[in-house]
Specification:
The complex is a heterodimer of chains A (245) and B (290). By secondary structure, chain A is of the alpha/beta class. Chain A has helices at 44-52, 83-87, 101-111, 127-139, 157-174, 185-191, 222-233, and strands spanning 4-15, 18-29, 33-38, 59-63, 68-71, 145-149, 177-181, 194-199, 202-208. In chain A, the strands form two sheets. Chain A has a six-stranded mixed beta sheet, sandwiched between helices. In chain A, strands 2-1-4 form a three-stranded antiparallel beta sheet, covered by helices on one side. Chain B is built from twelve helices and no strands. The two termini of chain B are 42 Å apart. The chains are: A alpha/beta (245), B mainly alpha (290). At the A-B interface, loops of A face helix 9 and helix 10 of B.
Amino acid sequence: MSTPVVSVRGLRRAFGAQQVIDGLDLDIADGEFVAMLGRSGSGKSTLLRILAGLDDRADGSVVVPRSRAVVFQNPRLLPWRRALANVTFALPDAGPDAPTRAARGRAALDEVGLSDKARAWPLSLSGGEAQRVSLARALVREPDLLLLDEPFGALDALTRLKMYRLLHDLWARRHMAVLHVTHDVDEAILLADRVVVLSGGKVSLNRRVELSFPRSRGDEGFDDLRRALLAELGVREEVGHDRSR
Amino acid sequence: MTATTDAAAPSGALTPDLVDVIAGHHHRRGVWARIPRPIRRMVSPVLILAAWTIGSTTGLLNTDLFPPPTHVATTAWRLLTDGQLALHVGASATRVLTGTVLGVLLGVLLAVLAGLTRTGEDLLDWTMQILKAVPNFALTPLLIIWMGIGEGPKIVLITLGVAIAIYINTYAGIRGVDQQLVEMAQTFEARRSTLITQVILPGAMPNFLVGLRLGLSSAWLSLIFAEMINTTQGIGFLMSRAQTNLQFDVSLLVIVIYAIAGLASYSLVRLLERLLLSWRNGFTGLERAS
C-alpha cells in the first residue's frame, strides 16, 4: 500500500452533548477507492464535511490533499450559470501554456458524456445529467481526493447503474483517491477497493473487496460480503416470513 | 374476488369517475387567446381613454375642469413644438436617472455589506429598516436648509428613496441565497469576489429587480416632491404652474407624462427580468381563468 493521502487520527466531533465522531482513525491510500457505509446519523456526512474543509470545529488530526473536490447528493449547480460555466466555476487558471478554462471545462463535460449540454441551463437538465455536470465540476480540478456524499441517492435505479459505470471508468482513468459515502451496500461493493462501516462514531468494520472487475451483483462472494456488511449495519435483508408453516 | 373480475366490470356504482384530460382542450382556445399579448395589454388603457372621450363629448364631464383627450393632445403638440416639453421632461428624466443610478449603487453596496457578514448586519440593517420607516418627504425641508435649492436636494431625495427600496429587497435576497451553494463555493475555495459576483449577487437578482421596480416608482414619486422645491424646470414645475394658472389641460398632460414614465420604468424592469432571469422556469400564468 502506497503512502496514505488521507490520514485521520483520533478524530472527535460533538454537536452539543452528542458525540457524533468519537475517536475515529482512517487512512486512504493514493488512488484507493473507499466506500463508507453507515446508518443515518452515524457521522458519515460529518466526517465528509470535515475532510472537505467545511467543518473545522473538530478535535484530532486530519491530513488531506490540498487539491480535493466534493460531489454532494444535491448537485448544487448555480442555476443562473450554464452547464459549462458551472463546471469551470472558481477554476484557477493553470498557467499560460495550459488549455483555457473553457477548453478544460469542455473536456470534463465530454468525459461525463455531456459535451452537447455545455450551453444548457441547470434547471433544464435531468437529475442524472445535473449530477454528471457536478461530477465534471469536481473532475476538472484534477483532485487528488474526490469526496462523494451520497451522490446517487436522489437518482432513479436505472440512472444509478449508468452512473456506477461512469464513476468507475473515471476513477480507473484518473486514479485519484475516492471517499464515497453511501447507504447502499451494493453500490459500495460494486465500486470500492475497500468498504468501511461507521458506527458509534468510529470505523467498526474495515473490509477489502476482493472481487475483480468487472463486478456485478451475481458474482461469487458478492452476497457473502453484502450479508456481512448488512449484519454490521444491523439490518436483515429478508422481507416477510414463510406462511406455509 | 380476484382483481381481474373487478376490472372487467364496466358498469355499476363501483366504476371510477373517468375523464379525458386532453380531448377538446385544443379546440377551446378562444378568440381572446389568439390575440397577441401586446395588443391584449392595451385593452384596459384604451377602454379608459374611450370612457374619458365619451364622458367629455356627451357632457357627462365638465370640459372646463376635465378637458377631452383631443384638447390634451393639442396642448401636448403645442408644448412639443415650442420645445417646452423637451426641456421639462429632459430635466426631470435627468434627475430621476441620476438619482436612480446613485440609489442603485448605494443600495446594492449597503445590501452586500449588511448581507455578507453578521457584523455588517449589526451595523447597518437596523438603521436601514428605521430609515425605511421615515417618510422621505419629511426630509425635504431639512434638505433645502442643508443643501440649498439647487439640484442637490432633489437628487438626494430621489437617491434616498431608491437606495432604501434596493437595500431592503437586495438584502432579503442575499439572505435568501441557498446556503448549499455558498458551501459548494467554499469547498472549491472560491475567492470572496467570485462568491459575491457569481453566487450571492445572481442569487439575490430576483429580489433586486423587485427592489428596482419599487425604487423606480419611488423615484418618480420623489420627483414630484423634489420639483416642488424652488425650480423653473421639470414636469413638477409644469404641473404647479398649470395649477396656479388653472390650465387643466396641462395638468392632465403632466399626469399622462407620469403615466408614460411609469410604464417605461416598468417595461425596463420587465426587459431586465427577461434578460437576467432567463435561467428561471417560473410560473407564467394560466392561459384561462378557470
